Amino acid sequence: MNRLIQNAIVRFAILIGRVLPRMWGRKVATWVGRFYGRNKTNPKIQAIRANQWVIHDGSISEEVLNEKPKIIFGSAARCMFDFFYYLSRRERLQDIIDFSPEGKEACDRIRNDQPCVCVCPHISNFDLMGYALAAQGLEMQVLSYPDPNESYKLQNKIRENLGIIVTPMSLSAFRLAKTRLREGKSVLTGLDRPMEKQPVNHQPVFFGHPANLPAAYVRLAIDANAPVIILAATSQPGGQYRLVGSAPIWMESGETLEDEISYNATRVLKEAEDLIKQYSDQWAMFYPVWPQFLGK
């Protein structure tokens, strides 16, 4: 039954995206998201509170902290609506998406077969960003979270139909990624979703605290002698989106491979911190990056 419910929710969202005008769809999505964000007992709301408490250095007021989940779920709901709205309106994507100089440079690298490992914080509409890149003919392999649930599986099928190569993280997926990088292609993966299991010596520092975050992208970049580039689709006024990013971050050597991975992952995350702080109301991270701060 859970599988049927998950798939039904995604299919209903697709239907709503097709039939509702964008202005009304975004308003409805915002209301639903803010309503959902009111339940303090929900684990996702608790995770948002803990994450926001950390990125604001513990100086955020209780009043503001109570409002953050509503704002973030409202933002995430609008982004979800927009993704499904533009599924059947591919030709209109260019009307709402702009590129920063760094974002344009990253796209040019990918288009010109200069391999790079793109990493994305969960800011705003990362799904729409992947869709926009595919619509521009940029071929990338996306390393997604392992063991996806039924709704994620259905969404991954939708992404594949858009021309996005989605491979849940596994040994075979990493082998494919290494091959593609050697051939001059690029790879994209998440940056900030905590892993259930991670070697202690691979826990990079994020906002001043060790975090159980993925670091395999560093190994991919080292092996391919390719840079890491941070990319994020940010929400802008007027229902617009802007693809922003970092300059290429080249990996630096260390005394051991473990030191190299941890050190470079921390360097990348440090760059991502500025983006997340700037767009903290759009940081849709629904899992506790620092579980020790749950209950804030």
Describe it.
By secondary structure, this protein is α/β, with parallel strands linked by helices. It has helices spanning 2-19, 22-36, 43-55, 62-85, 101-111, 126-135, 150-161, 171-182, 216-224, 257-278, and strands at 97-99, 117-120, 140-144, 165-168, 186-190, 205-206, 209-210, 228-236, 240-245. The chain has a seven-stranded mixed beta sheet with strand order 1-9-8-2-5-3-4, with helices on both faces. A two-stranded antiparallel ribbon has the order 6-7. The mean pLDDT is 88.
Short description:
The protein is an alpha/beta fold. 49% of the residues lie in helices and 14% in strands.
Any guess at the CATH architecture?
3-Layer(aba) Sandwich
Helix/strand order = HHHHEHEHEHEHEEEHEEH
Tally of extended strands? Answer: 9
- Helix fraction? 40-55%
- Major sheet: size, sense and barrel closure? 7 strands, mixed
Number of helices: 10
Q: Based on the structure, what is the oligomeric state of the protein chains?
A: single chain
What is the strand and helix layout of this fold?
Layout lengths: L1 H18 L2 H15 L6 H13 L6 H24 L11 E3 L1 H11 L5 E4 L5 H10 L4 E5 L5 H12 L3 E4 L2 H12 L3 E5 L14 E2 L2 E2 L5 H9 L3 E9 L3 E6 L11 H22 L18
Parallel strand pairs: 1-9, 2-5, 2-8, 3-4, 3-5
Antiparallel strand pairs: 6-7, 8-9
What are the defining features of this structure?
296 residues, globular, Glycerol-3-phosphate (1)-acyltransferase, single chain, alpha/beta
